[in-house]
Amino acid sequence: MKATKVKSATKTKNALKILDKVTGNDKELRVLIAQERVNSRVARLIYDARKEARLTQKQLADRIGTHQSVIARLEDSDYDGHSLSMLQRIAYALHKTVHIAFSAPSRASLLTHSGKQA
User: Fold this and answer.
1) What is the 3-state secondary structure (H, E, C) of 30-73?
2) Are the C-beta atoms of residues 78 and 35 closer than 8 Å to each other?
3) In a domain, 5, yes or no
4) In the chain, % of residues over pLDDT 90
5) Is residue 74 part of a domain?
6) Mean of the per-residue pLDDT values of the chain
7) Sign of the C-alpha dihedral, residues 17, 21, 22, 28?
8) What is the mean predicted confidence (pLDDT) over 84-111?
9) Residue 66: pLDDT band by 50, 70, 90 thresholds?
């Protein structure tokens, strides 16, 4: 009996390669993923800033004249209704500023918007 060599599949932990494999060339799916990435990042920024200020959701809500449930929704990564005016109100209440910048696209965003590798 002759021994056969079994080739094992190489596993990757590279998120971009995994994303490429899962989404293929589905441009719509890539756009949705990019939007969710932004929503998640904004939610996390709000949460981190509030925690750094050592405020509860209720305390932050009181400072900006809204309800605790609004802050909870803003901190939810599934929420996609973040507005610039609300972010400015939160920043002001936390003695911070909002910075918005346009920058050159990363490889990930190029893949997301074009469906092609950069």
Assistant:
1) HHHHHHHHHHHHHHHHHHHHHHHCCCCHHHHHHHHCCCHHHHHH
2) no
3) no
4) 46
5) yes
6) 83
7) positive
8) 86
9) very high
Q: How far is CA 56 from the centre of its chain?
A: 22
Model pTM?
0.69
Q: Could you give the CA distance from residue 71 to residue 87 in angstroms, rounded to a whole number?
A: 11
Residues 16 and 117: their CA atoms lie apart, in Å, by 11
* Helix-strand-coil split of the chain, %, nearest 5: 60, 0, 40
- pLDDT tens, 72-84? 999 998 888 889 9
The domain of 33 spans 25-114
Q: What is the CATH number of the domain that holds 76?
A: 1.10.260.40
Q: What is the tally of structural domains in the chain?
A: 1
Distance between CA 104 and CA 64 in Å, rounded? 34
Residue 83 lies in a domain: yes
In a domain, 91, yes or no: yes
pLDDT digits (tens, 9 = 90+) for 41-65: 999 999 999 999 999 999 999 999 9
